[in-house]
Amino acid sequence: GASGFAPSPQPGMAEAAGEAGLGPAAGREGAELAAVIGATVPTGFEQTAAEEVQEKLGSASRISRDRGKIYFEVPARSLPEVHRLRSVDNLFVVVQEFKDYQFKENKEDALKDLEDLVKKLSWSDPLKVWELNNSLKKKKTKRKKHNLQSPASREKLSDGGEEGGADQNNTNDQEDCAQTPVAVEATGGQDTENPQGVTSRNGVEEEEDNEQSGVKAEVQASSESGTKAGDDQTGEGEAKVLRFRVTCNRAGDKHSFTSNEAARDFGGAVQEHFQWKADMTNFDVEVLLNIHNNEVVVGIALTEESLHRRNITHFGPTTLRSTLAYGMLRLCDPQPTDIIVDPMCGTGAIPIEGAAEWPHCYHIAGDNNPQAVKRAANNICSLLRKNESKDSSTALGVPLDIIQWDICNLPLRTGSVDIVVTDMPFGKRIGSKKKNWDLYPACLMEMGRICTPGTGRAVLLTQDKKCFAKALSRVGHIWRRAQTVWVNVGGLHAAVYLLRRTWERAEERRSFW
Questions:
Q1: Per the record, which residues fall in region Disordered (predicted)?
Q2: CA triplet 248, 118, 294: central angle to 5 degrees?
Q3: What digits encode the pLDDT tens for the residues 444-478?
């Protein structure tokens, strides 16, 4: 299994009682509706997310052995707060969790067991949570439509039409493509449907060294259970027939079946059980079947598209997920009045997240690329407009400035900065590895110069780990490494380093004039 601790769950966490476990609070009359929430988070930042949940919701989390997921229990009335968490990408309500599900060796038997599971699960509370979640979403979209006719498209800074003014709710992921680790990919609608209505996406998920394919499959169960066309134009008193789809993620090499087959058969049983209608693209309910070795979790999705797209309207080639930006900022533990600098800000994901979550700090962002600075400025404008539309009387500015500068000669005073947070050029998509060998030591020196000796800290994300280690050894008198978090950025393995500034005085920069 993957590293990641799994303390014993809190009482009430849906524990499997034998094969058919009862969900939390089952049968307690008049008890307040509770929900076990599952959240997908950037791999490596499970602990950070758990701390945020504890701090904002007061709930303890269990970190899954399946990396990039955490589980916690909240009263259903806390759903709005759950959606405001900054470190989670997607949310679902857990119907049931099996810690050690025994799959039969034979494929047919294993699949039959999954089918039979559907009848044994207690769906009613999770479905109530799903309904409540829907009513919250409806309120939100009503408000949105009223305020905004996509200002992004109206007031773009003109720049040769290069800018995709991708609207928030536009799942066009091409610009954001490198940012979604495949194993937890939000199903964008780009799947090519093959005739049986079965679509799948293969992602490779690594656990330690043995690679396994975490396959993503969505399945449209065959609609032979007697639903005639036009069934869902129901008369007044009747409930509308819900449309659903099953999404299965499977990781592990001991299974006799594919995620496609699991989703198909489980989906058929769901259809039978609820008399819902299978629909791949236009569904009301997305049922999740997550299989990770012997861990099986059945859930219902609460987010349609990943929350990590929330701040950015103008994507660049390497826009960082805001959830990852949040995790990086949190590692630096920003204190009020700290000055936080992102010297290679790209489209501004880190400072924009920073200004939104740590408004009592001052955020300075810069990049040497004018195109990036322009995109970041667009994103900041969108953020300002969003703040104004909420309540124009109290709309505050954002404590954030964006500047074009040279990363190796920053126009900042020596020792004047508390925190540096940045996504270092990867050499994969921007720049080249060869450049990194010169760039990294020069950057680290310059970051060391502007940071306060003794208290300054830096959180840096990079994939060029060899080069970074080499550079760090050359500036060991200025920076010492305090922590490393391994993350997965767009399927590429990267590392986030927390560095602490030593007490050593940095050399003053020679004056230029």
A1: 1-25, 138-238
A2: 50
A3: 999 999 999 999 999 999 988 888 999 999 999 99
Q: Which two tokens stand for residue 446?
A: 């310059």
- For CATH 3.30.2130.30, list the domain ranges present in the chain: 33-138+241-307
Q: What is the pLDDT of residue 304?
A: 78
Residue ranges, comma separated, of all CATH 3.40.50.150 domains in the chain are 310-501
Dig out the tokens for 228 from the structure.
């005639």
Domain 310-501 annotated CATH 3.40.50.150: yes
pTM: 0.71
- Residue 291's alpha-carbon distances to 42, 43, 122, 356, 502, in angstroms, are 19, 17, 19, 36, 46
Sign of torsion, CA 459 462 466 471?
negative
Residue 342: which H helix or E strand, with range?
strand 339-342
Tokens of residue 115, six digits: 């089918």
Instruction: Give residue 226's identity as a one-letter amino acid code.
Output: G
CB atoms under 10 Å from CB of 399, counted, come to 16
Where b means 16+ CB within 10 Å and e means fewer, 361-375 reads bbbbbbbeeebbbbb
The fold for domain 33-138+241-307 equals VC0802-like (3.30.2130)
pLDDT tens, position by position, 356-389: 899 999 999 999 999 989 988 888 888 777 777 6
What one-character-per-residue DSSP string does 315-334 give?
A: --TTPPPHHHHHHHHHHT--
